[in-house]
């Protein structure tokens, strides 16, 4: 019986998905991975599943359980506990640890009904309801509901301001938070505000830009609020003039690769600048380079440290970013 269960487990985890070309391309687009990477993921699933089956069988053989139902129950619990450990371990030599870490994180979050598919379904329903409600208001229609995707890598204080600003709006909703760091503050912010979260991976981001997921979420405008990866060409092409960034200095000065957060304020102070500020601009294929939409200045004091200047600049960002986003949205 144990052998039968192991075989079933293997079947479930690898063989069926491997032999179906339809499933292959579906998963490739769903996970936004290259074909080669998908093969490594399948191998990890298959080897991890086999190891789980073997380990489960070994452990079960230590007990003498007569009742079939009890045996099956314990076996299922056992393999459920062993499987995540097995695939995570196997994923390391195949270079897929980050994928499986994020995969398991999302899987458990879905099971806990915190986020993932269940949440997304709920959110879709909520968005549909919100759209319907908007359609009932004078002067608004269902198509008027504009959706923001906020990309952030850090604490997310700007993201929090934007979410707060559009809370209760019938015209604009934050439809997605996109983050490249599972431990970032913005991840907990998205969970607290019940906004769907898309955790992205480097390789997938730079090869495809997660365009399919953003289109599926019907995103109108992408807002970079402390997002530190360069935006890849496919994403720029798919959202032409629909990606904006905030930069904590007066561009074109103090922009470019490596110029983010404290590094910017440090450079401003070291160069003896008398003023700094914020720049909100469209995003193109170069760092901090697209057309400028808005700038606001603030003084740099002789006593300033990068931290005190950062606070002054952050205050400007919090005051102006969301209203500027609102204006940009009005023209879309
Ligand atoms: C903001 O100050 C933003 O201007 C900056 O990161 C900070 C994120 O803060 N972005 C850049 O430096 C981009 N080059 P937050 O996470 O508290 O919103």
Cα gyration radius (Å): 24 Å
Shape: elongated
Strand content: 5-15%
Structural class of the helices, strands and pairings? alpha/beta
Average pLDDT metric = 84
Helical residue percent? Answer: 55-70%
Task: Name every ligand kind in the structure.
Answer: glycinamide ribonucleotide
- Ranges with pLDDT <50 over ≥5 residues? 115-121, 130-142
Write down the secondary-structure element order.
HHHHHHEHEHEHHEHEHEEH
> Which strand order spans the largest sheet, edge to edge or round the barrel?
3-2-1-4-5-6-7
Strand tally, please? Answer: 7
* Biggest sheet layout: 7 strands, mixed
By DSSP (H or I, 4+ residues per run), the number of helices equals 13
For the record, give the distance between the C-alpha atoms at the N and C termini, rounded to a whole number.
61 Å
Primary descriptors:
alpha/beta; 13 helices; 332 residues; binds glycinamide ribonucleotide
Molecular structure report:
The chain has a seven-stranded mixed sheet, with helices on one face. The protein has helices spanning 2-19, 21-31, 35-61, 68-91, 97-111, 117-136, 157-166, 185-192, 202-208, 211-216, 233-238, 261-270, 306-330, and strands at residues 146-152, 172-179, 197-199, 221-224, 243-247, 275-282, 292-299. The longest helix is centred in the first third of the chain and has 27 residues, at 35-61. It is elongated, with a radius of gyration of 24 Å. The protein contains 13 helices and seven strands. It binds glycinamide ribonucleotide. Glycinamide ribonucleotide (GAR) is lined by residues 152, 154-159, 225-226, 246-248, 260-261, 264, 314, 317.
């Amino acid at each position: 019986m144990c052998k039968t269960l192991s075989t079933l487990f293997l079947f479930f985890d690898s063989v069926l998905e491997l032999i179906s070309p339809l499933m292959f391309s579906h998963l490739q687009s769903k996970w936004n991975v290259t074909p080669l990477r998908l093969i490594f993921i399948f191998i990890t699933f298959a080897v991890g599943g086999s190891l789980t089956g073997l380990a489960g069988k070994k452990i079960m053989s230590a007990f003498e359980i007569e009742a079939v139902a009890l045996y099956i129950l314990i076996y299922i619990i056992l393999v459920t506990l062993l499987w995540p450990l097995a695939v995570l371990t196997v994923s390391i030599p195949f270079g897929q640890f980050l994928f499986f870490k994020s995969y398991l994180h999302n899987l458990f979050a879905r099971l806990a009904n915190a986020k993932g598919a269940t949440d997304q379904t709920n959110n879709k329903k909520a968005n549909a309801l919100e759209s319907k409600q908007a359609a009932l208001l004078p002067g608004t229609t269902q198509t008027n509901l504009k959706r923001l995707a906020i990309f952030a890598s850090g604490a997310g204080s700007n993201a929090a301001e934007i979410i707060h600003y559009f809370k209760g709006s019938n015209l604009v909703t934050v439809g997605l938070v996109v983050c490249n760091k599972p431990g970032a503050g913005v991840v907990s912010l998205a969970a607290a505000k019940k906004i769907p979260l898309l955790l992205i991976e480097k390789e997938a981001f730079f090869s495809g830009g997660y365009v399919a997921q953003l289109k599926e979420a019907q995103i109108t405008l992408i807002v970079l609020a402390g997002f530190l990866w360069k935006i890849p060409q496919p994403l720029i092409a798919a959202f032409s003039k629909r990606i904006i960034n905030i930069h904590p200095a007066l561009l074109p000065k103090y922009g470019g690769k490596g110029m983010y957060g404290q590094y910017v304020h440090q450079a401003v102070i070291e160069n003896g600048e008398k003023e700094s500020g914020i720049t909100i601009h469209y995003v193109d294929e170069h760092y901090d380079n697209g057309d400028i939409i808005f700038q606001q200045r603030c003084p740099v004091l002789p006593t300033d440290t990068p931290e005190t200047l950062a606070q002054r600049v952050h205050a400007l960002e919090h005051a102006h970013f969301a209203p500027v986003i609102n204006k940009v949205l009005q023209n879309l």
